[in-house]
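> example.struct
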């Protein structure tokens, strides 16, 4: 499989599938595909083989998380390479390699595609809301994940114990963090200081991906 983010002001994703390979993408993300590529619709979250209850639960979680309930699996059934081009609803794309056992926190509705199927979760809890994570969801799996962004994301790698304060409306994704490493700094003083109501204090290790343009007006 070959994946390439291309373009300048508005970026797209070119995917070349070798024989037998599959790729997953959000509905509505296709620019074009070779007509020999097969498409199958699947529920985009939940544990495989979980039965009807798992499927219904996945659909509910997906709807609440801002993601579409269904996802498209693209397969190359031929003996030659086939091409497809995808794009998000915003102007840029960010790829993040997710290893088995890792989790990725991303803004709801920003998942575009992945090289294999990933699990998409939302955790509706008081801790999530008070911790500033109400607008985010968790992605788990082993894949390269492609996320939507307004502008080319700023990437900041934090060493263990290193802290930064980030305007939450600029955050695209948080890779390699546990919830206890992320704290909301609620303060009216932030507003008078020209910032949002909540700055998020993030402590390393981990990587923060931030949009140079606020994503608040684009969040579902």
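> example.seq
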């Amino acid at each position: 499989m070959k994946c390439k983010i291309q373009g300048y002001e508005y970026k797209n994703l070119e995917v070349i599938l070798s024989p037998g390979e599959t790729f997953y993408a959000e509905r509505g993300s296709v620019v074009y595909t070779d007509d020999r590529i097969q498409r199958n619709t699947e529920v985009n979250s939940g544990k495989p083989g979980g039965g009807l209850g798992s499927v219904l639960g996945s659909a509910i979680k997906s709807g609440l998380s801002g993601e579409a309930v269904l996802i498209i699996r693209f397969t190359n059934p031929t003996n030659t390479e086939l091409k497809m081009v995808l794009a998000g609803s915003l102007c840029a794309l960010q790829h993040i390699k997710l290893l088995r056992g890792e989790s990725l926190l991303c803004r709801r509705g920003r998942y575009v595609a992945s090289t294999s199927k990933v699990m998409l979760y939302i955790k509706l809890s008081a801790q999530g809301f008070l911790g500033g994570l109400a607008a985010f969801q968790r992605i788990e799996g082993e894949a390269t994940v492609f996320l939507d962004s307004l502008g080319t994301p700023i990437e900041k790698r934090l060493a263990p114990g290193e802290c930064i304060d980030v305007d939450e409306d600029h955050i695209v994704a948080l890779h390699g963090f546990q919830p206890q490493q992320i704290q909301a700094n609620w303060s009216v003083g932030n507003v008078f200081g020209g910032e949002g109501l909540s700055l998020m204090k993030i402590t390393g290790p981990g990587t923060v991906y931030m949009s140079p343009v606020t994503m608040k007006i684009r969040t579902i």
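> remarks
The first helix runs from residue 51 to 65.
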